[in-house]
Known about the structure:
The protein is of the alpha/beta class. It has one domain: Glycosidases (TIM Barrel, Alpha-Beta Barrel), CATH 3.20.20.80. It is 40% helix and 14% strand. The protein is built from 14 helices and 13 strands. The strands form 3 sheets. The protein has an 8-stranded parallel β-sheet with strand order 10-7-5-4-3-2-1-11. Helix 1 (48-61) links the parallel strand 1 (6-10) and strand 2 (66-70). The termini are close together. InterPro entries: GH, Glyco_hydro_1. One of its GO terms (biological process) is carbohydrate catabolic process. Keywords: Glycosidase, Hydrolase. This is 6-phospho-beta-glucosidase.
Amino acid sequence: MPADFFWGNSVSSMQTEGAWNIGGKGKSVYDVREATANSSDWKVAIDEYHRYEEDLDLMKEMHFNMYRIQVSWSRCNPTGDGEFSSEGFAFYDRLIDAMLARKITPMICLYHFDMPLNLAKKENGFLSRKTQHAFVRFAKKVIDYFADRVKYWITFNEHNLYFQEEVFNISGYLTGEKTVAEMYQIFHHTMVAHAEIDEYLHANYPKLLLGGMLAYEEIYPATAKPNDIFAARTIQEFMNNNLYDAFATGHYSNEVMHFIEKHKINSDFLPEDMNVISKMHADFLAFSYYRTDVVNADKIPKCTPPNNYLAFGVESNRFLETNEWNWTIDPLGFRNVITKIYNRYHLPVFPIENGIGLREHWDGVNQIEDDVRIKYHHDHIKAMKDSIFIDGAKVLGYLGWGLIDIPSSHGDMEKRYGAVYVDRTNHDLKELKRIPKKSFNWFKSILEKNGDEL
Length: 454
Ligand code: BG6
């Protein structure tokens, strides 16, 4: 593997930091969500705010050389559009300096569904242009602040989810019914924000690198019937190609634009937006990859917009094993995605989230033997190497998701991704002790040799 290949961990703020009401932090939409029978609240997470030195030591021991963090909007800019918080920035100062001291390269993501509560209430989030402008203002401030120490940047986590209901259901920040037009409006506002940040970053800091990021799900047709193949292709066009085309070449997909115009939901797509989008140029294309899905066109009601096809048409894949949450395990799908992206765009590809959620409990004595996780990462890393060495793709690195346990996107501590166990449950914080699992030693041994022996 190349000597400068990145191996590491990837997280969001609200799933790791805790410290929800200290250090000058304002509230985000997550901070007002209560625990349920199957989930925790978001107040403490794994308390990385206070334990980052210990967590970075564990990452270093596994030979990680990159950590993708998020700089939380509401920690640095409590109302989202008002005064910045020097205390908020000071936390990330400490965190980033601690990474650099360990030769761990930081990657910053600027948004991970955690809308500042004030903007959620006042503006209904990215439905409003005011939120778009506020986000760009926040992003510029963070870029100016950390440009001397952080080279790798991402704007929106999983940018293709911003016109799916799912993201709003997870974060729960939008109120009222969302029409198709509104979903596209939100998506477009986030894309214009990305384009403005792209322009600013490249004009002012030519050495910094900015990537667009998607949740890249490979979609298989349920059968060889042309309508299944058509549905699978259409989902790819709307959910993946449309955004990567914009990041890489500066224009939305022709098919998607035609859909938007035909349904008259383009009133908010202004000429000046298209102008700034046309100037975009991604330095790398990043994505999360966990699983693949199958679509059955017969299940999709007529008139469903393509961005919702999967919500109706999804079907299980009898050829693949799954975890307890029915997420398929598909390493070849991973290779397929990497190779496909590189073939299409000839830009460096960066898988920045990968992993498997498993239910695990520590008995207080014995090491957790997470062989299923070891196999998952082993097979995915091997598939990535095939993509590099057989298919010729250029890949910057491989980041696992939540490799020190964190609550799931739904706040569930029962679904763990870590190579390190964090001792807490949904309703009992215990001591939040960190306990390496068997996969910790596995990462340590394979990364000591830069993954060469896989
Ligand atoms: C990604 C998100 O979609 O998947 C993370 O960026 C999330 O926030 C991860 O935690 C895994 O999903 P889940 O639902 O298993 O936590």
